[in-house]
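Budget justification, computational time. The allocation requested in the original proposal was used primarily to generate structure tokens for proteins on the priority list. As evidence of use, we reproduce two of the resulting records. The first is shown immediately below.
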Amino acid sequence: MKLLSGRIFRKILLFSCALLLLAPLAHAEDYDQIFHKANDAMGRGDLVLAISLLKQIPVSKGEDNSAFVRSRMQIARLHFALKDFEAAGADAREVLAVYPDNSEALNFAASVKREQKPGYVVFFQDCLRFLPHLLKGSLMTIALVFCTMLISPLGGLLIALGRLSSFKAVSTLCWFIIWLFRGTPLLLQLFFIYYGLPALGITFKPFNAAVLGLGLNYSAYLGEIIRGGIQSIEHGQMEAAKAIGMTYGQAMHRVIIPQTYKRLMPPIGNEFIALIKDTALVSTIAMVELMRSADQMFNAYFNITALILAALIYLLFTTIFTFIFQKIETRAGIYENR
């Protein structure tokens, strides 16, 4: 009799353990069905039904906590979509009451508070948050622009003079440089310099690679612009300079090139304004400039204000450069305008 009682007790114990082990699985299946029904309701646009279904999942601090947190955060997002910010905040606080360190609920609660503020206050706060980082990236953009502006006009002048040279080898080499750098994308050139040349044993730091790539590319474009400007001067000017005893170099330096300044300013100004925007491409070679800074801020906060501020800074830079080149153009043509 005692033996029989012991066997019955062991069976009851094993059955109870099995029920305890299977209970979470049963709950999990029930919760999956609730989420499935809620998703169907959201798909039909019935957000109220979806909220009521998700609220069926009870508060839990045990093994089923993931279902509880998931359901309440989904309810919070639905209330947020319905512009019911007070209810959305209450849903997030319900999660925080059980799990005070839940990062998703903390971030969501902060977003709800932000949405309840007036729009101009939110925009002003975003500006204060993003501008320091964007201005730091802007300094790198300006550094790239000025370094390229120092290199490319000199490189363009040498390429232009080489194209006009009577030496076939020099002329062909300069034609090849123009053909290569104007015929391939700037992004590809930056990739080749920064990522490709190390395979050949030549390594550049990101800033040096960016300046080299931008300098070579814009030298090729400016070379053709300068060559066109030089060839636009009447041939008689060169003949007159040689007639009074000037060499070819002296005639180019004192007579021909000075007359091209006014004609060159508009296209060169356009190139340098395009350069300000093209510096955004160096973000692909690990350079943290304005565009990279804006992208980092947008990805971190998913806030379009960062992109708007970056666009305004680019517009400010291009406006300043446009004004400067207009003044230079006017100054360069002062004698022609008399």
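The second record produced under the same allocation is shown here.
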Amino acid sequence: MHCPACGADVVEQAIYCHKCGERLDTIGQEYPGDGPQSPSAENDARDPQDAPPADARERLEQGAGARRNEQDEEEQEIWEGGYSPKAMIGAWILSGLVTLVLVIVWAMWVRNKTAWTLLLLGLAGLWCFQLAKLTYRRLNIRYRLTSQRLIHQTGILKRVTDRIETIDMDDITYEQKFIERFVGVGTIIISSTDRTHPELRLIGIEKVKDVADRMDDIRRSERRRRGLHIESI
């Protein structure tokens, strides 16, 4: 028999090694708790209360899956538009009536060429003003609606882009003037929790009813997808 510590030859009945003093009668004995335990033994030794209930784990897994699906969902283009020329039909009609009345009055009572020149210049200025206003609004305003937000762009030389999340929209209404109802244009009014535009007015929208309904559907769908209560929709 050899000492496991120093390798010296010792008798089998020896309790201690005569050379290094190592105790020999405990070799090969196993004590509870000594040595590595298997993973299953470790799991069995754990307190059962430390493990979450099965239904809680399922809810956590479902919540994590919903968040992953939300992050993976792509933003879809829903609608894009701007200021419609039809929104100025009322202004065109009014300008036409003013032009017609002034021409008739001047033709009946005014014979001065200078007055006629001034009249023509004034009418030209009126029509140029209406045309410039239409051009400015067409170039200045642009809207884009996606499945998650409304993008509002303004400016010609300096472009300003503002975004309103559809989930932040609280109410969507639209209004139409008398003539606008005949051509299907109007103004959409969006009330939201957005700090920049708590009330945003989208003017000159063609097919205003369809666009407003589409915005409201997207708003409600996004709130349901985010898990908000129906009372807050």
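A brief technical remark on that second record: The chain has two domains: 1-46, 81-232.
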